[in-house]
Specification:
Largest sheet of chain B: 8 strands, mixed
Number of strands of chain A: 4
Order of helices and strands of chain B: HHHEHEEHEHEHHHHEHHHEEHH
Number of helices of chain B: 15
Strand content of chain B: 5-15%
Oligomer: heterodimer
Structural class of chain B: alpha+beta
Largest sheet of chain A: 2 strands, antiparallel
Strand order of the largest sheet of chain A: 1-2
Function (chain B): Allows the formation of correctly charged Gln-tRNA(Gln) through the transamidation of misacylated Glu-tRNA(Gln) in the mitochondria. The reaction takes place in the presence of glutamine and ATP through an activated gamma-phospho-Glu-tRNA(Gln).
Radius of gyration of chain A: 27 Å
Shape of chain B: globular
Keywords (chain B): ATP-binding, Ligase, Mitochondrion, Nucleotide-binding, Protein biosynthesis
Order of helices and strands of chain A: EEHHHEE
Shape of chain A: flat
Catalytic activity (chain B): L-glutamyl-tRNA(Gln) + L-glutamine + ATP + H2O = L-glutaminyl-tRNA(Gln) + L-glutamate + ADP + phosphate + H(+)
Largest interface: A-B, 82 and 101 residues
EC number (chain B): 6.3.5.7
Protein name (chain B): Glutamyl-tRNA(Gln) amidotransferase subunit A, mitochondrial
Structural class of chain A: alpha+beta
Number of strands of chain B: 8
C-alpha cells in the first residue's frame, strides 16, 4: 500500500503530494512507546486499587464492560513514560507568563437563596438536607449491589 | 445529573449576547458533559447531521444504492457540540455556542460544513461554562461564515471579573479586513499531522489548500511539531484527571438529580452519581482518580503536565521561526454513519477524532475550522487554521481569505429550498445571515 507524504521541493517553492514508503513503520501520531502495560497487568492494578478508587471517586465500576474501559485508559496512559522530561517544568496554566487578577473580595451580588433552593430536592428551613455522614461506603468485596432508585 | 436544574444565573457569554439583543432560541444537544466526539452519548439521544438529508448527499447515495430507506444510515455530526453545529448548518439560527476542550467545536463544524472557532484561552470568559478541564476549556462559536464568527467573537471577548483566567487587555469588536495580498504570509504545514489514518480525500484537499496559498504568493513551508505523537495521550491523562476533580461537585445535595437512598451521605452520593452519569463520564472519573492517587500523581498527572510544556513549546518554536498560521486537517474524514461510529467505544473514538485538534487546547492557541469542499459523497470537509496566542483577528483574516477563495457550497435541504428560493439563487453564498 502506498502512503502519502508531504514535502517541499527546495528551490521550486512548490508544496506537493508525494509518495511515502511503508517501510520503517508509521510516523506522525504513533508513539514510540516505552514499556506497555498489558491489559492483564492494568486489570490487576485496577483491581488492587479498586477499593480505594471507588470511594474516592464516589463512582463505581458498574457492569463488567465498564471495568474494561478504565483498564484500557490506564494502559493507554502508560505511553507517557517514553517521553524525556528532565528539567522540564509542569504547565498548570498556559497563561503562566502573564498577570491574572483576582477581583476584590466585595459582595456585589447574591441574596438568591430562594432561587438556589428551588434546585434542591430536599431542604428544610432553607437548609440543604443530607443523610447521616459518618457511615462509610461499603468496601468493594463486601458491598451489596446498589439498588436502582 | 442536571435533570430539572434551572440555572440561577446566565453564563457571561450568554449575557453578553443577550445584552446585544440576541434572541436565545434554545439549548442544543451534545455528548453528556461534553465528553465525546460524535454527539452520540447524550441523554436526549444522538444528533443527526443535517447533511444526511441534503440533496448533495442523497443524490450521491442514490447513485450507489437503490431502494434503501433513506433515513436508515444517517450521519453523525461529530462532537461534542454537535447540536450547535447542526442548528447552524440547518439554518435554524444565526450562530450557536459550543465548548472546546479538545476540539469539540471544530470537529462538528468540519462535519456539518460550518465555521467552528476556538478562541485563545483567556480571551473569552468561562464563567457559567460547566468546567471539564479548567486549563483548556474555551467557549466556542459555530457560524456559517468567518465574518459572523468575527462578529460574535467581538462581542464575547474581553476581561470578565468573574473569571480570573481572562486576560486584562481590552478587546473591542472588530471587522475583518478583506485580505488581497498574501505574499507576506507564511503558512506552516506540520509534517507529523500526515498520518496513515487520514482519508485520501482530506489529504488531497489539504494539499490543494496549501497549493492555493502558494499560488497566490504566500510562503508555504513544512514544519515540525516533534511531540505530536504524545499529544493525545497527554491530553487523555490531563482531561480525565481534571474531570475527576470537576465532576466531584455533582452529588445531588444542592441541585440536580438526587437518589432516594438515605442510608448515608456517601451511599447517596454514589447512587446519585451512578444514576446521573453515563458510563462514559464514570469511566473518565475513575481513570482520572487513578492518575491522581498519591502513588501515581507524579508519574501520570505531573508527567503529563511536563509533556504539555513540550507540546506547547513546539508551537512556540514554530511561530517564532516566522510562521504566521498553521494549516492542518480538522478531522480524519468526512462524517460517518452513526451505525459505523458506534462500533467503537467513546474513548477510542475520542482518541481517534481529537487527533488534530486537542494539541491546540493544550497550547491555549486560537484555531478555526473552515469548510473547504464536499467529498465524493457530497459531505463537507473542513480544514483547520491555528494561530498564535491572542492573534485571533489575524487568524480569522486568513481564514476569511481562504473561505472566499474556496466558495464552499450552501447545503441544499428541500424544506429550505422550497421556502427560501430567492435566497438560494446564488448557490455559492457561504452565509445568508446578515445579507
Amino acid at each position: 500500500m502506498q502512503e502519502i507524504y508531504w514535502g517541499v521541493i527546495s528551490g521550486t517553492s512548490q508544496v506537493w503530494l508525494g509518495l511515502w514508503a511503508l517501510a520503517g513503520g508509521r510516523r506522525g501520531f504513533t508513539s514510540k512507546a516505552g514499556p506497555r502495560v498489558e491489559a492483564g497487568a492494568s486489570r490487576r492494578v485496577l483491581k488492587g486499587v479498586g477499593q480505594i478508587l471507588e470511594p474516592l471517586a464516589l463512582a463505581d465500576f458498574g457492569s463488567g464492560g465498564a471495568v474494561a474501559r478504565p483498564e484500557k485508559a490506564i494502559a493507554f496512559a502508560y505511553r507517557l513514560c517514553a517521553v524525556a522530561t528532565d528539567r522540564v517544568g509542569p504547565v498548570r496554566s498556559v497563561l503562566e507568563d502573564g498577570c491574572l487578577c483576582l477581583r476584590s473580595d466585595n459582595v456585589v451580588e447574591g441574596n438568591c437563596a430562594e432561587e438556589l433552593l428551588q434546585n434542591s430536592r430536599r431542604d428544610v428551613e432553607e437548609y440543604f438536607v443530607a443523610p447521616p455522614g459518618r457511615i462509610s461506603w461499603p468496601k468493594l468485596d463486601e458491598k451489596e449491589p446498589l439498588s436502582h432508585c | 445529573m442536571l435533570k430539572g436544574y434551572v440555572p440561577p444565573y446566565n453564563a457571561t457569554v450568554v449575557q453578553k449576547l443577550l445584552d446585544q439583543g440576541a434572541l436565545l432560541m434554545g439549548k442544543t444537544n451534545l455528548d453528556e458533559f461534553a465528553m465525546g466526539s460524535g454527539s452520540t452519548d447524550g441523554i436526549f439521544g444522538p444528533v443527526k447531521n443535517p447533511w444526511s438529508y441534503s440533496k448533495q448527499y442523497r443524490e450521491k447515495r442514490k447513485q450507489k444504492s437503490h431502494g434503501e430507506n433513506e433515513d436508515s444510515d444517517w450521519l453523525i455530526t461529530g462532537g461534542s457540540s454537535g447540536g450547535s453545529a447542526a442548528a447552524v448548518s440547518a439554518f435554524t439560527c444565526f450562530a450557536a455556542l459550543g465548548s472546546d476542550t479538545g476540539g469539540s467545536t471544530r470537529n462538528p463544524a468540519a462535519h456539518c460544513g460550518v465555521v467552528g472557532l476556538k478562541p485563545s484561552y483567556g480571551l473569552v470568559s468561562r464563567h457559567g461554562l460547566i468546567p471539564l478541564v479548567n486549563s483548556m476549556d474555551v467557549p466556542g462559536t459555530l457560524t456559517r461564515c468567518v465574518d459572523d464568527a468575527a462578529t460574535v467573537l467581538g462581542i464575547l471577548a474581553g476581561h470578565d471579573p468573574k473569571d480570573s483566567t481572562t486576560i486584562q487587555d481590552p478587546v473591542k469588536p472588530f471587522t475583518l479586513p478583506s485580505l488581497t495580498d498574501v505574499s507576506k504570509l507564511c503558512i506552516g504545514i506540520p509534517k507529523e499531522y500526515l498520518t496513515p489514518a487520514l482519508s485520501s480525500e482530506v489529504r488531497s484537499l489539504w494539499s490543494k489548500a496549501a497549493n492555493l496559498f502558494e499560488s497566490e504568493g504566500a510562503k508555504v513551508i513544512e514544519v515540525s511539531l516533534p511531540h505530536t505523537s504524545y499529544s493525545i495521550v497527554c491530553y487523555h491523562v490531563l482531561c480525565t484527571s481534571e474531570v475527576a476533580s470537576n465532576m466531584a461537585r455533582f452529588d445531588g445535595l444542592e441541585y440536580g438529580h438526587r437518589c432516594d437512598t438515605d442510608v448515608s451521605t456517601e451511599a447517596m452520593y454514589a447512587a446519585t452519581r451512578r444514576e446521573g452519569f453515563n458510563d462514559v463520564v464514570r469511566e473518565r472519573i475513575l481513570s482520572g482518580n487513578f492518575f491522581l492517587l498519591k502513588e501515581n500523581y507524579e508519574n501520570y498527572f505531573v508527567k503529563a503536565q511536563k509533556v504539555r510544556r513540550l507540546i506547547a513549546r513546539d508551537f512556540v518554536n514554530v511561530f517564532n521561526s516566522g510562521v504566521d498560521v498553521l494549516l492542518t486537517p480538522t478531522t480524519l474524514s468526512e462524517a460517518v454513519p452513526h451505525t459505523e461510529f458506534i462500533r467503537e467505544d467513546n474513548r477510542t473514538r475520542s482518541a481517534q477524532n481529537d487527533i488534530f485538534t486537542q494539541a491546540v487546547n493544550m497550547a491555549g492557541l486560537p484555531a478555526v475550522s473552515v469548510p473547504m469542499a464536499l467529498s465524493s459523497q457530497g459531505l463537507p470537509i473542513g480544514l483547520q487554521f491555528i494561530g498564535r496566542a491572542f492573534c485571533d483577528q489575524q487568524l480569522l483574516t486568513v481564514a476569511k481569505w481562504f473561505e472566499k477563495r474556496v466558495q464552499f457550497p450552501v447545503i441544499q435541504l428541500q424544506e429550505l429550498m422550497d421556502d427560501c428560493s430567492s435566497i438560494f439563487e446564488n448557490e455559492k453564498l457561504a452565509s445568508v445571515s446578515l445579507k
